[in-house]
Structure formats: structure tokens, C-alpha cells
Amino acid sequence: MGAFLEQLGNQTRIDGWRRLGGNILLQFVEELPSDWKGGVPTLAPKAIVHVHVAVPAPCEGAFASLIAHGALETAGAICTFAFMRGGAAARNIP
To answer: Which tens digit of pLDDT belongs to each residue from 15-43?
Structure first.
């Protein structure tokens, strides 16, 4: 029970825009429950991270995709450590 209470007390919440290097912007958004009435929730709400990657490539293609996906994996790992909780799989990757 002590580990659970410690985890509740150590929850990390990040909101807004952050820069990760020269080519990556992160936008942190919290998805609050529909019945939330304000105040501080006991559990941290679901965090959504929009990753914007500027790929130095001449056009869209295999080379640009390889660079972008490598940057997304790194950004996902960093966000997992920043939130101190497991990350979900990346979705909506073109």
C-alpha cells in the first residue's frame, strides 16, 4: 500500500509546449474526465503528447520517414521517463 500512495504523491503533470532539440516540438495536453468539476484530481489525467518533427529532407519519402520515426521513438522514451509512467503506442503516424 505504501508504494501506491507514494506513486499518487509523485505524479508528474506537464502542460503546454516544450522544445526537444532543434527539430522537435512537443505539445502536452491533458484529457480531463467529462464529469470533472475542477480542483486537483487524485489521479493524474490522461496525458496526450503531440509531437511535431521538422525533418531535414528534400521531400516526403523513405528517408524522411526513417528520420521522423527515429525521432518519434526518442521523444516517446523521453516522455515516458518525464511522466514516470508507461507510454502508450504512438498513433496517427503517417
So the answer is: 789 898 888 898 988 777 677 666 666 66
DSSP state of 19: E
Q: How far, in whole angstroms, is CA 23 from its chain's centroid?
A: 16
Q: Which helix (H) or strand (E) element contains residue 49?
A: strand 46-53
Q: Which of 48, 53, 46, 55 is nearest to 27 (CA)?
A: 48
| pLDDT tens readout for residues 36-85 | 666 666 666 777 888 888 888 888 888 888 888 888 888 888 888 777 66
pTM for the predicted model, two decimal places: 0.65
The answer to whether residues 30 and 78 touch, using CB atoms and an 8 Å cutoff, is no
Q: For residues 40 and 79, what is the distance between their CA atoms, to the nearest angstrom?
A: 22
CB 33, CB 42: distance < 8 Å: no
Sheet holding 46-53, edge to edge: 16-19, 24-31, 46-53
Domain ranges of the chain: 2-83
